[in-house]
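quick q for whoever's on today - can somebody do inverse folding on this one?? i tried earlier but teh output was garbage lol. tokens:
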């Protein structure tokens, strides 16, 4: 297999705790299908038959959810080593639930679901590790969606931001926290527009509630921050 492809697979959480030599053997058991796509081409359409999950080996793509009227809602951007379709594949879905589009020239490997869950014919010792990784990935995604629903129910932008920052403080136990999401990801998670979120962060900084640089946020006034939390 192409050395660059192996490096991309090593970044994929599906293969956590699997060494490169073992990964090469495991991939041969999975029998992935490799496909290349040009910039702006459609990788999968909403409603296409879903036979497995995809992993980005080279390039970047974007996932959209399409409404019945044809409007598109941006779900997330994905890059090298990232999975798509894993939740739908293991939820028993027969069709792709979203549209995936290349935003650069793209190489993807598609792994049939049955090759992941089936007993490995070669008694590969790393197969169980991969299955455990998949269970963890799907569980984390379910927890993330549950948490996202909680934030959607919060009414104001400031309350969403303060609640999120306070939760990071509770996890880190320090007044200076490193947010695990970048601005675009955070805006998507909170279900707000990125420009509006950036303006609200700037207002909170001007009011002396927080200071920030990139993904690092320093809490300056804990009491005021907590007063906006829901």
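ok took a stab at it. sequence:
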């Amino acid at each position: 297999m192409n050395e660059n492809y192996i490096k991309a697979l090593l970044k994929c959480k599906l293969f956590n705790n699997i060494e490169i030599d073992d990964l090469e053997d495991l991939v041969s058991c999975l029998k992935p299908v490799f496909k290349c796509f040009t910039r702006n081409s459609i990788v999968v359409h909403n409603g296409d038959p879903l036979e497995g999950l995809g992993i980005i080996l080279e390039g970047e793509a974007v996932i959209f959810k399409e409404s019945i009227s044809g409007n598109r809602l941006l779900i997330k951007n994905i890059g090298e080593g990232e999975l798509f379709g894993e939740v739908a594949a293991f939820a028993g879905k027969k069709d792709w639930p979203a549209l995936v589009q290349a935003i650069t020239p793209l190489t993807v490997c598609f792994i049939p679901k049955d090759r992941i869950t089936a007993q490995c014919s070669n008694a590969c010792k790393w197969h169980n590790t991969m299955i455990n990784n998949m269970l963890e990935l799907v569980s984390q995604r379910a927890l993330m969606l549950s948490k996202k629903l909680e934030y959607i129910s919060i009414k104001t932008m400031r309350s969403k931001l303060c609640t999120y920052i306070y939760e990071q403080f509770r996890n880190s136990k320090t007044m200076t926290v490193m947010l695990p999401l970048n601005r675009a990801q955070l805006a998507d998670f909170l279900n707000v527009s990125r420009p509006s979120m950036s303006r609200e962060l700037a207002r909170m900084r001007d009011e002396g509630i927080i200071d920030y640089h990139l993904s690092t946020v320093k809490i300056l006034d804990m009491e005021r921050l907590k007063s906006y939390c829901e």
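fwiw The radius of gyration is 20 Å. also Residues 36 and 107 are 4 Å apart (CA to CA). so keep that in mind when u check it
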